[in-house]
Amino acid sequence: MSEPASACNVDVAIVGGGMAGAALALLLAQRLPSLSVTLVEQHALQPATDEQLAVPSFDARSTALSCSSQRILAELGLWPALAQRAAPILQVHVSERSRPAGMLMRAEDNGLPALGYVIENRLLGNVLLRAVLESPHIRTISPAQVSRIALSADSARLGVGDAQLTARLVVIADGADSPLRQQLGIAADHIPYDQHALVANVVTELPHAGVAYERFTDTGPVALLPLPDHESRHRAALVWTVPDEQFDELMTLPDEAFLARVQQRFGERCGRLLAVGSRYGYPLALVQAREQVRSRVVLMGSAAHHLHPVAGQGFNLILRDCLALAETLTPVVAAGADIGDIAHLQQYFSHQQWDQQKTVAASDWLPRLFSNRDRPQMLLRSAALLGLDFLPGAREWFAREATGL
Ligand SMILES: Cc1cc2nc3c(=O)[nH]c(=O)nc-3n(C[C@H](O)[C@H](O)[C@H](O)COP(=O)(O)OP(=O)(O)OC[C@H]3O[C@@H](n4cnc5c(N)ncnc54)[C@H](O)[C@@H]3O)c2cc1C
Q1: Do you find a cis peptide bond into 283, omega within 30 degrees of 0?
Q2: Which pLDDT value is given to residue 1?
Q3: Contact 159, 4 (CB under 8 A)
Q4: Is 74 inside a domain boundary?
Q5: pTM more than 0.85
Q6: Ligand 1 neighbour 138 (Cβ under 6 A)
Q7: Does one domain contain both 114 and 228?
Q8: Which is the closest atom of ligand 1 to the Cα of 22?
């Protein structure tokens, strides 16, 4: 239930009800029901219809969920509701425009029912937010903006409108720009890619047959991800990375001309592209906070690390971070110790640091490697694609990393 903020004491206060905040609240409620958890979101948290957008995380994008994310969501009891709306990824096809090398990875070769699942964010959001609102262990305060944060030895204080919320631990999940991170004086490295992700749903002539396509072109990668059919029409989610200078033009092209441009970049793998829905754009940058934990504070989600979407790993990494935090706090709560103690929070961060580093590196390396026109780099990426196809064990390794297993 959304309540007005009033002066109170809680164990955990989470700022931001996007993918990170909602997922963490649900994991804490399930794993540590003795904790009082309060989630504060500046937009109204309310059950939306499938046509409505809830909070910004749950907008017109689609998310490719890895197998490890699927398991976490299943453990939360959310998978039956999500599975009805998600398309399984049975194969991943990676290729480069105008070059022969390509790589195909199949779920069956890895003994998996699927390599991952694609779901539209508003549907994912509706399931997550409904579960948050129905949980007896989560209190929500929305619409309400946290405007101030102050830390002391034994608590963190949040200013929510005229009221104050005092918590033993504050999780800051307020997005990549994270005003609260800035208030705490935590620096973040911000490296723009000078690119936008242009996102839209498209109707294709042929069924996608569960294939997720990632095609690297000289202006950036084009991904076409499988979506469930709707009213007998075959659908796919387009994520097209375009240079900033081309973005405005592509956003304003008439549908037919836009589809012709996509077809020219992507080819005929799904037959002709027949229709396109509304287009949305996201400026792309790599943002990494220089600190993720302090006494009484954890940065979570995009506030901690905001990645290029080419590898579809942002939310998958966030879910693993959230699970790791809940698992780290489990023995702390059982022992009646202080959940805001920096020693425990540091332990969480040390546990996740390697996972974060390699996921960030892969998400950063891929678009750079494939947007470079130097001949040595072109040879390197052909070799990378061929190597994944021919080196013994390389594809299995890639599959393990991509599925998060
Ligand atoms: C084009 C694109 C495609 C992507 N595809 C994938 C994919 O396939 N797979 C994948 O795993 N990831 C993907 N991602 C990444 C994923 O979408 C992000 O990792 C995720 O949305 C980050 O969520 P967040 O909750 O950390 O941040 P946000 O979505 O920014 O949410 C922050 C929330 O905090 C609230 N807030 C902010 N300030 C305050 C305040 N002061 N008080 C109260 N509330 C506040 C905001 O209203 C918002 O609801 C993609 C990203 C993009 C851009």
Answers
A1: no
A2: 44
A3: no
A4: no
A5: yes
A6: no
A7: yes
A8: 25
